[in-house]
Model the fold of this input.
Amino acid sequence: MTDAVSRRWVWFALIAGVVIADQISKWIILSTPSLNGLNCLDPMIRCGRIELSSVFDLSMLWNRGISFGTLQSDGFMRWFLVAMTTCIALGFGYWLLRAQRWLTALSLALVIGGAIGNLIDRVRFGAVVDFLDFSGPWFGAMIGKFPVGFPWVFNIADAAITVGAVLLFLDQFLMSRSGAVEDKTG
Done:
């Protein structure tokens, strides 16, 4: 029995941890009056912002697309994204049950946890709460008229999905190659 298989409960605890951290952070954001979270679900009402530093602020946004605001959608497409996200989470869950390496399991658990976190928002509100804003300008730096910073506002679920996807890429393309080399030499 490999480590990934024998420690399966750890990966499901990680999924639950990502979902809980994501939902608690969003609850705090939606409960903060100055961010006007629930009211600005109506696109005609402006959301709030709390400036914390030149690098990081809290900016309430409703994302009707997928990670980092891509594929914006409403109506039928909202439920299509719910179905697509559910299928991906279930497929990755099946893959997690069969994972042999710890990095594969860690990657999949992060992606699944993030997907479930955003799925809960999309079903509840029709959009996802985003609020982590690193758009800058960092320390006042500008390139031409554009601020130096990370341009997308995101949440904990998006961060988990992104880190999980990068780790999954590393695992599948780098770790699996080193395993193949070991198999040929060993």
Notes: The beta strands are 49-51, 57-63, 128-133, 142-143, 146-147, 153-154. Helices lie at 3-6, 8-30, 76-98, 102-125, 156-185. The longest strand covers residues 57-63. The first helix runs from residue 3 to 6.
